[in-house]
Write a structure and sequence with these properties.
With 253 residues, this protein is mainly alpha-helical. 71% of the residues lie in helices and 0% in strands. The chain is built from 15 helices and no strands. The chain is globular and about 65 Å long. The two termini are 30 Å apart.
Length: 253
């Protein structure tokens, strides 16, 4: 198949329709976009449609491109992802991009769910009680990251040296990573994508690439995820992530 045929095939799988021919006010741009994303990028690497759509959703949440997010939440459902898997992908962005942007994304996601007749709220995915947040968060965090954060910020005034690493453990790992819906391997891969899409987070990209490998992802998984994110995040941010993690990825091959 050439890339036009591939675009037609992939577009039908994801959206249940046909790509643009000459429709709309800017068909030329849409043809370039669709043929690159759906006719080329989607066919390179080992990741399946399900993981690729979670990657796409992650970047769209980071970018706050909400009309496109709605379309890809629909695509997620079309390729067999559950509402819970989609919701958890959106939820786990909160510690990285902040709560207001995540709330915007949740509202867009829920519009698509409601349009598909999915009852809200979805099932409760909490697995950790209020008293267990720190302990359970540390159980997830330590095997992957050790005491890196606590050591890195030991120089802060005493109250903050204790509170900031504790917040990370309790919120990122206790409140979010412990939830049902996504396994640790998937969460770590999506976190790499999220940080790459944000830009300016090279230290965290390197740390989470190492974490993603410890969680069971291969170097090829990570490179494929960043390559798939490229049309949505842009070449500079994808290149920056690949460049800053080059040594780790080459070693992990």
């Amino acid at each position: 198949m050439d890339r036009i045929e591939k675009t037609r095939e992939k577009f039908a799988e994801l959206f249940g329709g046909a790509p643009v021919q000459n429709e709309g006010s800017d068909p030329e741009f849409m043809r370039i976009l669709q043929r690159f994303i759906f006719g080329e990028v989607c066919y390179v690497g080992s990741l399946d449609n399900r993981m690729r759509e979670l990657i796409t959703v992650t970047v769209l949440v980071v970018n706050q491109t909400l009309p496109q997010l709605k379309a890809h939440v629909g695509a997620c459902l079309n390729v067999g992802l559950s509402p819970l898997e989609i919701r958890e992908t959106v939820y786990q962005c909160a510690p990285f991009i902040g709560f207001p942007k995540t709330l915007n994304a949740i509202a867009a996601m829920n519009e698509t769910f409601e349009a598909r007749g999915i009852a809200l709220p979805l099932e409760n995915a909490e697995t950790v009680s209020e008293s267990e947040r720190c302990e359970k968060g540390r159980e997830i965090q330590s095997p992957i990251y050790g005491d890196e954060i606590a050591d890195r910020y030991a120089w802060l005034p005493a109250e903050f040296a204790e509170s900031i690493p504790k917040w990370l453990t309790e919120l990122c790992f206790g409140d979010f990573s412990s939830r049902k819906g996504l396994d640790g391997k998937t969460r770590e891969l999506l976190t790499v994508v999220m940080l790459a899409a944000m830009g300016g987070a090279d230290v965290q990209v390197r740390s989470h690439v190492e974490g993603a490998i410890r969680a069971g992802n291969t170097a090829e998984d990570i490179v494929c995820a960043l390559a798939h994110a490229l049309p949505y995040a842009g070449f500079p941010r994808a290149f920056n992530a690949l460049n800053c993690a080059k040594e780790i990825l080459v070693k992990g091959e």
